[in-house]
Amino acid sequence: MADRIFTFFLVLSSISLLFSPILCSSSSSSLNLSLVRQAKVLVSIKQSFDSYDPSLDSWTVPNFNSLCSWTGVSCDNLNQSITRLDISNLNISGTLSPELSRLPSTSSQT
């Protein structure tokens, strides 16, 4: 009886180890999609400005992996989502894009 229980847990552990990389890559892929989506929103916001400080040049979609270190951007470190956008004192002129509303749970300072 003890051998059967041991075998059962051994098989169960093997199966969970087999699927572990799949679950991790799925989570990583989901995080990347979220970062890309947020980067696209910020780039759209930047493009709505008539002029802006050169420090916003880092706001590019290919640079999405470092989104949380972009000028004026603060993120929740756990799930890498934007929590605050401070674009004050960046010599911005133009209209603030309604795309800003596509960033959930974001406070902004303009």
UniProtKB/TrEMBL annotation:
Keywords: Leucine-rich repeat, Repeat, Signal. The keyword Cell division does not apply. Residues 1-24 form the signal peptide. Residues 38-76 form the Leucine-rich repeat-containing N-terminal plant-type domain. InterPro entries: LRR_dom_sf (IPR032675), LRR_N_plant-typ (IPR013210). It comes from the Eukaryota. SUPFAM superfamilies: L domain-like (SSF52058). This is BnaC03g63780D protein.
